[in-house]
Specification:
Layout (H helix, E strand, L loop, with lengths): L1 H15 L38 E9 L3 E2 L8 E6 L3 E10 L5 E10 L2 E9 L11 E12 L5 E6 L2 E7 L1
Parallel strand pairs: 6-8
Antiparallel strand pairs: 1-7, 2-7, 3-4, 4-7, 5-6, 8-9
């Protein structure tokens, strides 16, 4: 727990001091506002991408077999955990029966928000026990250039969890 708190504090300090150590004054004449090309750059010339920009570099998803949801089970919920370079989502997708499965429809960035969309998949046959189902799943998204500020988890198109760092 202390390690996690230390990492969160260091990340907040690093984010809070971004830009504070940059030189001011533009002595060489080539320095411009952040992200702007120098004035002598021809119009239409693309600005090189920054290597440290937030981007997804890997994603993984695993779903367990569905099960009948008990009276005290939580379904349709997800927990989000921020790691050093990853965001992990553990959830339980509610389904009409336990024979349905779960799949990762998307893990994408919308600005500084990670959207993790999980959808149910059709059961392999019509024969299934009749009870409300729950499909446990685990999704992990690895990043370069930092972590998103916010994570939204969707189940079948409906937002079930939104967490800010």
């Amino acid at each position: 727990m202390n390690r996690r708190r230390l990492l969160e504090t260091l990340a907040a300090l690093a984010a809070g001091t971004t830009g504070c150590t940059a030189r001011s004054g533009g002595e060489s004449g080539d320095e411009t506002a952040a992200g702007s090309p120098p004035a002598d750059t021809p119009a239409g010339t693309p600005t090189p991408a920054r290597e440290d920009r937030l981007r997804i570099v890997d994603r993984s998803f695993a779903a367990a077999d569905g099960e009948c949801a008990g009276g005290t089970d939580t379904i349709g919920e997800a927990a989000v955990e921020f790691g050093a370079e990853t965001v992990r989502v553990d959830g339980r997708l509610g389904t009409p029966t336990p024979c349905y499965g779960a799949a990762l429809r998307e893990a994408s960035l919308d600005g500084s928000t990670l959207v993790v969309a999980v959808v149910r998949t059709s059961p392999p046959s019509d024969a299934c026990v009749q009870c409300l189902g729950a499909v446990p799943y685990d999704a992990t998204v690895r990043f370069a250039g930092g972590l998103p500020d916010e994570v939204t988890v969707e189940h079948d198109g409906e937002a079930v969890t939104t967490v800010r760092r």
